[in-house]
Design goal:
The protein is an all-alpha fold. It has 4 helices and no strands.
Length: about 120
């Protein structure tokens, strides 16, 4: 008979609330840098309106993630996956596709961090 030890000390590989905050803040900074780079590329390509829409939309999502919103993290990840799939099919420069790698990484960690933060906060009480 095998006994499994249920290790409830971590959630999604995150051990404590501070680690969840740190992971989420790192994701926020990666998202900000990727958004600025994407905006610069859009401006250089002559798409000022796309730049404005991108900055406002991503800025709102990043602000929500900074405030530890699970919904903002999920929306950010979903939109990034959709944009990644579209850009993989479209004929765009490799530099644009390259920006999506750290952005995907950031939003995956944002989802992990925000969910772990809320789960670990509830365990404290």
């Amino acid at each position: 008979m095998s006994h499994r030890v249920n290790n409830n000390s971590s959630y999604l590989g995150i051990e404590n609330i501070q680690e969840a905050k740190d992971i989420t803040i790192h994701a926020v900074w990666i998202s900000v840098v990727a958004t600025v780079l994407a905006g610069i590329i859009a401006l250089l390509a002559g798409d000022g309106l796309i730049f404005l829409i991108s900055v406002v939309m991503n800025g709102s999502i990043v602000w929500g993630i900074y405030k530890m919103s699970r919904i903002a993290a999920i929306i950010g990840l979903t939109l990034t996956i959709i944009v990644t799939l579209i850009l993989l099919i479209a004929n765009v420069p490799l530099s644009v596709k390259f920006i999506l790698v750290p952005l995907l990484y950031a939003y995956i960690n944002a989802v992990r961090g925000t969910f772990a933060y809320h789960k670990l906060c509830h365990r404290k009480f």
